[in-house]
Amino acid sequence: MTDSESRNVGARILQAIFDGALDAMLLADDRGCYIEVNPAACALFGLSRAELLGRNVGEFAAGDFDVPQAWQTFIQHGRMRGIFPLRRLDGTCCELDFSAVANVLPGMHLSILREITESERATRKLAEELRASEARYRRIIETTSEGVWLIDAEDKTTFVNERMAQMLGYAREEMLGQSAQAFMDDEARSVSAAKLERRRRGIAEVHEHRYRKKDGSVLWTLASSNPIFDDRGRYEGALGMFADITERKHAQDTQRRLAAIVESSDDAIMSRGMDGLIRTWNHSAEKLFQYTAEEAIGQPISMLYPPESEGPLQQMRARVEAGDVVNERFWQGVRKDGSRLHLSFKASVITDSEGKMSGVSVIARDVSEQIKTEASLRRTEEQLRQSQKMEAVGSLAGGVAHDFSSVLDASRAGKPR
């Protein structure tokens, strides 16, 4: 076969493809006027080949589609894809999915068009809605105050949001592909392994977990972990939502230490609310006043003082609530059995996280024996003073008697015999 025959065969094949294509194919010149169309294009536009040739693209644009601007962009870039709103000459309209290539031959530009069916339109609408939904959820994930962490079936990190990376002190890129256990110490890893096994069994849970930050410090989190399975029920990984509770854990540790100190103190330590009811009650308070914590908590603190103390008690309460720290050396208290005791106590205001007064703390100590000892000491001192007085009087009396005796002797010596 000669070169000429080969070219003829190739041309006939291309013509056969052009004429037999199911999609509309149109060639336009530089002005956008059609110079060749295939049968599918005639059917799509509702015109014969003779009627369609020579017409301009702009004659078939519906709505506000800017044909001159689109044509200029197309020629400039050489390719274009998109949706073209077709308006046929009989007034009917439809949307076309188009793909265009400029200068397939010099000055000749090819467009391939296909009508978008209702099914395709519904599919595209659903895809757009899914993309919009994904974008919304991504914005939510990226702006939430919680960390978001996604791992696959092999425990490898496939996604973390910016908040999660910040909590651990890493860049997001540093965490991707890493095992979640790479951000834990040995003890936390053993705990995590058991939790991970529960995810594989489909168990979701909320739990506290400790991580190690990039700088080596500890991050405590409250994690909500949920397993992910595919349509066949195969485990694909897990999604975790994390809140930073490090400060809360430190506060709890401090509170436990303080509670241990309060509970082991030899002093009775209690607190009351602004309503005057007892809120806390340590072991030494139980021993001092004979009420158990269950009996005391919720009762008015005034039950610990005799009725005649009500007036001074109101004055002291006013001082404390005004912000004074009240130290009372001697104050009478009343035990559960009605017996009385002498107290030394200190009362001060309790404030909440906003600095507002929420109650009063009281530290009390039994000084009954001390008072008895001091009274006995005072009696002993008084007896000693009396004894010293009597001794002084005795000494004085002895001296006077001696002096009187000397005078008397001298007087007798001077008389004549």
**What would CATH call the homologous superfamily of the largest domain?**
PAS domain
The backbone outline, from C-alpha atoms, is rod-shaped
| Oligomerization status of the protein chains | single chain
CATH architecture label name of the largest domain = 2-Layer Sandwich
Judged by helices, strands and strand pairing, the structural class is alpha+beta
End-to-end gap = 198 Å
Count of folded domains: 3
The stretches of 5 or more residues where confidence is low (pLDDT under 50) are none
CATH names the topology of the largest domain as: Beta-Lactamase
Tell me the strand percentage band: 25-35%
Largest sheet: spatial strand order: 2-1-5-4-3
Note the topology.
Blueprint: H1 3-20, E1 24-28, E2 34-37, H2 39-45, H3 49-52, H4 67-77, E3 79-87, E4 93-105, E5 108-115, H5 118-143, E6 147-152, E7 157-160, H6 162-168, H7 172-175, H8 186-200, E8 205-212, E9 218-229, E10 235-244, H9 246-264, E11 268-273, E12 278-281, H10 283-289, H11 293-296, H12 310-321, E13 326-334, E14 340-351, E15 357-366, H13 368-413
Antiparallel strand pairs: 1-2, 1-5, 3-4, 4-5, 6-7, 6-10, 8-9, 9-10, 11-12, 11-15, 13-14, 14-15
